[in-house]
Amino acid sequence: MKGIKSFPKNSWIVLANRSVQLWLLLIFINFIGHSVIFTKIVYIMSSIKVKKILIDLKGVQIPWFPQAKKQTIRIPLQKKVTESGEKKEVEPKDKIVFDKIIQRDEEFGQPYLPIKLIAEVIKNGRNPKIHGMKYKSKKRTKRTWGHQEPYTEIKIEKLMAWDRQKNLVHQEPYTENREE
Fold it and tell me: Do 71 and 145 belong together in one domain?
């Protein structure tokens, strides 16, 4: 298996697939309680190239493909709370942290994986207008309506593994080497 260099080839950890490896090591961590083993898990997770990540954002599942070049994602409009308690739209160059990651390739969290994504806001905008109409023949009734959904466009910068219970990052920020 690519990316695992710290374990010998005849080790039982190499024989299992990636999700089973992670599951067994997490059980071992809960049993022993050492963070040294968790850093080995982080090494295994970071050394494997990620193909797809699924983010949960207010009930909306947003896919992200790290292999895509210059990929930006449109998500529902994001707001931040100011010190005075007001809600304002996020501004370009602001950072957003996503900690509710549902899926990473074939690995599924229960409910979430121990991963954080850090994204930079590119712009806020509105999608093209959707026009609709209701019409009843021979009744002289017609109703038209329109709707424009606001969005926030982001670019994901960093993928980090972290311990949800202790709220600690166990690794330097991991970024994919993409040619842009």
Answer: yes
Residue 11 and residue 63 share a domain: no
Q: Are 154 and 120 in contact (CB under 8 A)?
A: yes
Residue 141's Cβ-side half-sphere holds a number of Cα atoms within 13 Å equal to: 3
Number of structural domains the chain divides into: 2
What's the one-letter identity of residue 157? E
* Separation of CA 56 from chain center: 7
Q: Give the residue from 12, 29, 48 where a domain finishes.
A: 48
Predicted structure pTM score: 0.60
- Give mean pLDDT in consecutive 10-residue pieces for the chain, a chain of 180 residues: 47 48 58 51 55 89 86 92 92 92 87 89 95 95 96 90 61 47
Q: Which amino acid is at 91?
A: E
Residue 6, domain extent? 1-48
3-class SS string, 165-176: CCCEECCCCECC
